Amino acid sequence: MERPTAALTDIVALKTEYNFTVFASGVTDPTTGVLFNNRLRSFSAERDSPNALGPLRRPAHTLSPALALDAADCIPRFLLSSPGGPSQTITLAQVLVNRLALGQDLATSVALPRWSVDLDGGLPAEVGVEEELLQASCRIGLAVKRSGADTPYFGSAEIIERIEGGALSGMADLRREALALGA
C-alpha cells in the first residue's frame, strides 16, 4: 500500500487538561509564561503501586486522544479526544460506535446519551440511555446510577472527520464549553 501524502498525515490531537484545578500545577515557565500541567498527579511515587512511574512500567492513565484510520486507504478518518477522567476511552468508543456502527451523523453521534463507569465500579447513565442496557447491567451486578449531564463521568467529545472528497467536518460536545471551528 502506498504511503499517504504528508498533507493528509500531518495532524495532531491536542489535549489540555488540568485535573479540575484552575491553575494546573501552579508553575509557569519564566520565559514564555506557559502554564505547566499537573497530569503526573495521577501517578504514584510509591515503588509498589501499580501507578508507579519507572522503566518498563505501564501506569494507568485516562488521557486518550485517538486517531482512527480509514480501513480502505489507511488515511486518517477520525481525530477525536475527550476530557472527562475515567470516562475518556468509554466516551470515545461510544461516539465512534454511534457514527460507524449505528450510522448516526456526527452531531447526533456526539450528542446521544451516554453511560460510563465511575471510580466505585458503578454505572452512571444519562437520561435517555436505553432501559434494556441498564437492566442488563444490573443483572450482572453493576450499580446503575441515573445521572445528570453535570457529572464529570460523561466527558465531552470533540471530533474531526475526514469525509468524502477529503473535506473535514467537526463537532464539539455541548456537555461542556466547547467549540468546533474550521478554516
Provide the fold topology.
Blueprint: H1 6-9, E1 66-69, E2 76-81, H2 88-101, H3 106-111, E3 123-126, H4 131-139, E4 144-147, E5 158-162, E6 168-172
Parallel strand pairs: 3-4
Antiparallel strand pairs: 1-2, 2-5, 5-6
Question: In words, what does this structure look like?
Answer:
The chain has helices spanning 6-9, 88-101, 106-111, 131-139, and strands at 66-69, 76-81, 123-126, 144-147, 158-162, 168-172. It has 183 residues and is an alpha+beta fold. It has two domains: 17-61, no CATH class; 62-183, 4-Layer Sandwich (Glutamine Phosphoribosylpyrophosphate, subunit 1, domain 1). The two termini are 31 Å apart. Residues 1-8 have low confidence and may be disordered.
What string, H for helix and E for strand, traces the elements in order?
A: HEEHHEHEEE
Strand element count: 6
The tally of helices reads 4
Sheet with the most strands, sense and barrel status: 4 strands, antiparallel
Level of helix content? Answer: 10-25%
Overall form: globular
Strand content: 15-25%
For the largest beta sheet, what order do the strands appear in spatially?
Answer: 1-2-5-6
Q: At the first level of CATH, what is the class of the largest domain? A: Alpha Beta
Q: What is the architecture of the largest domain at the second tier of CATH?
A: 4-Layer Sandwich
Low-confidence stretches: 1-8
Average the pLDDT over all residues and give the rounded result: 80
Count of discrete structural domains: 2
* CATH fold title of the largest domain: Glutamine Phosphoribosylpyrophosphate, subunit 1, domain 1
Radius of gyration over all CA atoms, rounded = 19 Å
What is the assigned CATH homologous superfamily of the largest domain? Gamma-glutamyltranspeptidase, small (S) subunit
In whole angstroms, the N-to-C terminal distance is 31 Å
Briefly note the structural class of the backbone: alpha+beta
